[in-house]
Amino acid sequence: MKEIRVLIAEDQEIIRKSLRIVLGLAPDIEIVGTAENGKDAVNQVNALKPNLVLMDIHMPVMDGVEATVAIKAKWPEVKVIILTTFQDVQYVVGALNGGAEGYILKAIDPMDLAAAIRLVHRGETMITQEVAKALFARSLGSANLKESEYGLTERELQVLKYISDGMANRSIAERMYLSEGTVKNFISNIYSKLNVHNRASAMKKASDEGLF
């Protein structure tokens, strides 16, 4: 029996079929069903009890964000990964606020998509680098310039955010596609720039100074 039961919610039939074929080749992933819109996705979750939903954003009847909110309200244990062509940050924020654990662009390599499904199934959050960059560009643009006072780079801010989320070095390395050694170097630079000596102090300073 395959470990991860996945429901695909996507209004384009060709994409639904492609995803079903590609992901169905994974030894630990079973595609238990597909949905053409958000409302159908909610009904299918109720009927099929998947572990995870691959959710398109723009669908008729009910969009992916609304469907995510509805699913997480009734079945909080079901993981949701938003899969879309849209890079607009407002959709990212809306989906993540709705409870989604991941946000991935449809251009992702099928093997990377399978890896992301496993990551989210294990309890991690997955945001691809393109999306993370857009999110940080937005946060940097609206920040109160505290970041520049400390001289933190965009990558250091990203690592600091993951530290604040309670992620371990190994998880941060996997998320950012870096080695653990590189992550440790980023953390050392962050400690130096913030004049702190451990994670707890870094998290407190980031909170006190409104770095996020």
Short characterization:
This protein is of the alpha/beta class. Helix content is 56%, strand content 14%.
Could you describe the 3D structure shown?
With 212 residues, the protein is an alpha/beta fold. The chain has 2 domains: 4-127, Response regulator (Rossmann fold, 3-Layer(aba) Sandwich), CATH 3.40.50.2300; 143-208, Orthogonal Bundle (Arc Repressor Mutant, subunit A). 56% of the residues lie in helices and 14% in strands. It contains 11 helices and 6 strands. It has helices spanning 13-24, 38-48, 64-74, 89-97, 110-121, 129-142, 146-150, 154-164, 169-176, 180-194, 199-208; strands spanning 4-9, 29-35, 52-55, 79-84, 102-105, 126-127. Strands 2-1-3-4-5-6 form a 6-stranded parallel β-sheet, with helices on both faces. It is elongated.
Helix and strand layout, with pairings?
Elements: E1 4-9, H1 13-24, E2 29-35, H2 38-48, E3 52-55, H3 64-74, E4 79-84, H4 89-97, E5 102-105, H5 110-121, E6 126-127, H6 129-142, H7 146-150, H8 154-164, H9 169-176, H10 180-194, H11 199-208
Parallel strand pairs: 1-2, 1-3, 3-4, 4-5, 5-6
* Order of adjacent strands in the largest pleated sheet: 2-1-3-4-5-6
- How much helical structure, as a percent, in the residues? 55-70%
Examine the secondary-structure arrangement and name the CATH architecture of the largest domain.
Answer: 3-Layer(aba) Sandwich
Which range does the strand content fall in? 5-15%
**Pairing-aware structural class of the strands and helices?**
alpha/beta
Main sheet makeup: 6 strands, parallel
Q: Which CATH top level class of the largest domain fits?
A: Alpha Beta
Instruction: Give the CA-CA distance, first to last residue.
Output: 43 Å
The value of Rg in angstroms is 18 Å
Q: Return the string of H and E elements.
A: EHEHEHEHEHEHHHHHH
Do you know the CATH topology of the largest domain?
A: Rossmann fold
| Shape annotation | elongated
* Mean pLDDT over all positions: 86
InterPro entries: CheY-like_superfamily, NreC/VraR/RcsB-like_REC, Sig_transdc_resp-reg_receiver, Tscrpt_reg_LuxR_C, WalR-like
Organism: Paenibacillus riograndensis
Domain Response regulatory: 5-121
Domain HTH luxR-type: 145-210
